[in-house]
């Protein structure tokens, strides 16, 4: 890719670091769907996973390499520790990609060396050099990260980076692994690297900022000001602990404040060329997809993609917006693909109008998915006076979300409840092998009764960790989206569903989460059998 000093390379790690968020576990099909959308979004590099971590991760990286890493598509990357086994797995999984990248890393801070690696500085230097050269024997494009770089002794960090470049690294990534730095410190760190590491101008300098102190985006932008030309980020800022720099925040900051950033790229202040390759109109759609598939809700006041990001309640603000939008808005909602007109269709609308509106919203459905979504739209439209774009999006995502090849299906839900009645639920479930089972249970409320009945039928041990309901739109007839997170053996699985009846939505969300857990069980069993047969 050369030095790429004229723009910022967007390295998306939603499928690797983002998936490390508790409860954000994704299956191969879901990862592939997100990867296709990231390619539409225009990201330069997709870190598809950590190939050696599990058979599922290996398959996800390989599938994305095959189907998304095509000629003209994004670079497909796999993380690998500076260990031969990791690098071999990454190289094997990435074979189908037109442009593969191995991203290898090793800790360099004294606290990591002492308590985690239990190795000396000289040992780390030798390992980094050897493993980068080993990765280079498989692919031309090798990225190296000195983990916990921001707490590493600067002189030792310079040594490691010099060796890494000499060994063949083409991208040098500087991780603020624990989100410790302030923007000023990040600037000083990058300046020191550029000044003291020989040949640093011959590689792409990258930054990876965590959000533990809420400074991930600010730190990434500060790094750009000091010469960094690749930013590692995730959709919605999801990731380990408090998350990562949010892609949408980085991209829109560079877009909205282009006159400020242009001089750092040796451009005239008023230069109009974009500073990234991101198609910003795909941001909202990508954000919604990641939220739905990971089960991680977007906080309403989240910058750029939150529900309140373009809402104005204050009378003073409303008056200003009416008179001139730029009084209180620094970007247009349409710039991120968020439609202005929210009310569009009703129960008398036809299939063609439905299809056309979905296209305007960015959904290209095949005939089977369109039929499912349209039938559900008609069902909901009979219950609601007005159908908004928010409703349409919730319906489409519910009806087209990736179904597991084998899993439990809800056939029937009936609930009796009230202030003088013991809440009772009767549930009919179709099992993965096609059996139809019915049972009933009582609970402290209608949702509890539904979950007790489902548990009696499904018999998958789990602990309900989180149950949340969000209204898709305003009004007493609004669709409600239920998100459920369940725990099993220190892993968390999420499910999501929408309906005008939140008890029904709760049942489907719970089944979706249980099916994720069931799929995980299947994968673990298959892996155990494969190991035993060796």
UniProtKB/TrEMBL annotation:
Molecular function as annotated in GO: 2-isopropylmalate synthase activity; acetyl-CoA C-acetyltransferase activity; homocitrate synthase activity; metal ion binding
Keywords, comma-separated and alphabetical: Acyltransferase, Amino-acid biosynthesis, Branched-chain amino acid biosynthesis, Cytoplasm, Leucine biosynthesis, Manganese, Metal-binding, Transferase
Domain of life from the UniProt record: Bacteria
InterPro entries named in the record: 2-IPM_HCS-like (IPR050073), 2-isopropylmalate_synth_dimer (IPR013709), AIPM/Hcit_synth_CS (IPR002034), Aldolase_TIM (IPR013785), LeuA/HCS_post-cat (IPR054691), LeuA_allosteric_dom_sf (IPR036230), LeuA_bact_synth (IPR005671), PYR_CT (IPR000891)
Enzyme Commission code(s) on record: 2.3.3.13
Alphabetical list of SMART domains matching this protein: LeuA_dimer (SM00917)
Ranges for domain Pyruvate carboxyltransferase: 8-275
Family annotation (NCBIfam families): leuA_bact (TIGR00973), PRK00915.1-3 (NF002086)
Name assigned to this protein: 2-isopropylmalate synthase
